[in-house]
Design a protein that fits this description.
By secondary structure, the chain is α+β, with helices and mostly antiparallel strands. The protein contains ten helices and ten strands. The strands form two sheets. Strands 1, 2, 3, 4, 5, 6, 7 and 8 form an eight-stranded mixed β-sheet that branches. The protein has a two-stranded antiparallel ribbon with strand order 9-10. The structure holds flavin-adenine dinucleotide (FAD). The site of flavin-adenine dinucleotide has 21 residues, from strand 1, strand 3 and helix 10. Flavin-adenine dinucleotide binds next to strand 1, strand 3 and helix 10.
Length: 370
């Protein structure tokens, strides 16, 4: 077993032992468990150094637990850690990284707003530079880990600077005066992950809140999206593999018409589609990870992860539900939860439609069309 396989199987075990026993109950209650989060930190989930290690840990966690909500929170935390570790100041790193890595702190990437969803450049949050540092007025909504988090990377436009320097990202301690966060309680999917909103009303952040160089916001968006799209790609992969395994076992064991239902080609087709999805997604994901490590531009290939990965994982969850017969709609089975979670996943981090727009633009550029 190579090092990555070892990490994957370590986190399959962590997922099965620590997470899976309570996933269904947390999903029903719509709750996030901070003690469990710390246990994940203690298991080393947030302290892995390379992208390859982090993504196989996410895949393993999902395979072992089928808790996509918790895995979404993990992906957001990993993005925050990577941004602060690579772009933060030494003071920010000293202040935030030990707690984030230990799982005693929870972080969020807060970009989306009421009028800045698919079109993120419509963001209206404002930051004003003053004698005390930065004064932030922001409204962010539907953000993973908000409602329960300790710090958030918040994007805003700085006023009175040239347009090209306007978009910036700030690290915000959610305990700062005039900063409030609120949990959403209406979500049908990803219920084991907190999702919420943040309001900053002329909040004084101090001078050490800037992440990256001045005017670096758009580049930091790209960095956050790259990390998030790759790690959620491995989340889809873990979900697909778990659906295939559950479907295959049931197809071989459940007998109808005097034989296992897996002898029927309509049943086989569902499992074959899952296997084809796994093979193609896995190959694409590792190509992207290698390109990421080599510093190659990833733009369209990140969108392919989402367009292909989330759709094939959602179809697999639907097919698993059908293949299980009446058990498929039971809340004791993961299929219906996976469908709800994957619908949420098709929206967060950029919708499938947005990804298609990106791939279409890239195809046009390929032909050098004006
Ligand atoms: C559970 C959850 C967690 C989230 N976590 C985060 C987070 O951690 N950080 C963060 O910043 N955001 C987060 N989001 C927000 C998410 O990124 C946005 O919801 C998403 O980008 C879509 O924005 P919107 O909801 O405003 O939809 P809209 O932008 O209003 O889009 C509505 C529909 O129109 C389509 N559409 C819009 N414009 C076009 C177009 N030009 N062509 C074709 N179709 C189009 C969209 O694809 C979508 O189907 C989260 C959302 C959810 C549901």
């Amino acid at each position: 077993m190579n090092a990555r396989d070892q990490i994957r199987s370590r986190f399959v075990d962590v997922g099965a032992r620590l997470v899976a026993p309570s996933t269904s109950a947390r999903d029903r209650a719509g709750s996030f468990d901070r003690a469990l989060w710390q246990e994940l930190g203690a298991a080393g989930l947030f302290a892995l150094s390379t992208l390859g290690e982090r993504v196989v840990a996410v895949e393993g966690l999902v395979l072992g637990s089928l808790d996509l909500g918790l895995a979404v929170s993990v992906c957001a935390q990993l993005v925050v850690i990577n941004v602060i570790a690579t772009e933060g100041t030494p003071a920010q790193q000293q202040r935030w990284l030990p707690g984030l890595r230990a799982g005693t702190l929870l972080g969020a990437c807060a970009n989306a707003e009421v009028n800045a969803g698919t079109d993120l450049m419509g963001l209206k949050s404002r930051a004003r530079i003053d004698d005390d540092g930065v004064c932030l007025s922001a409204r962010k909504r539907s953000i993973t880990n908000l409602g329960a988090c300790d710090l958030a990377l918040v994007s805003a436009r700085v006023v009175d600077v040239p347009a090209r320097e306007a978009v910036n990202v700030f690290v915000v301690d959610t305990n700062t005066a005039r900063v409030a966060q609120r949990l959403r309680s209406d979500l049908a999917g990803l219920r084991t992950s907190p999702t919420g909103s943040l309001v900053a009303w002329r909040a004084q952040l101090g001078p050490s809140c800037w992440v990256g160089a001045r005017g670096d916001g758009v580049r930091l968006f790209r960095k956050m999206f790259s990390d998030e799209r790759i790690s959620t790609g491995f989340l889809y992969l873990g979900s697909l593999k778990a659906c295939r395994d559950r479907a295959l076992l049931h197809a071989e064991r459940r007998r109808q018409f005097g034989q296992p239902i897996g002898r029927n080609q309509y049943v086989q087709e569902k499992i074959v589609k899952m296997q084809v999805g796994i093979d193609l997604l896995e190959a694409h994901l590792w190509r992207v990870v290698d390109d990421y490590d080599a510093g190659v531009d990833l733009h369209g290939s990140l969108s392919v992860i989402k367009i292909f990965g989330v759709e094939v994982a959602l179809q697999a969850a639907l097919d698993l539900g059908r293949l299980l017969g009446s058990r498929g709609v039971s809340t004791d089975e993961p299929a219906e939860r996976l469908v709800r979670d994957l619908l949420g996943l098709s929206i967060l981090g950029g919708t499938v439609e947005l990804m298609k727009m990106i791939v279409y633009d890239e195809a046009r550029r390929h032909l050098s069309l004006p």
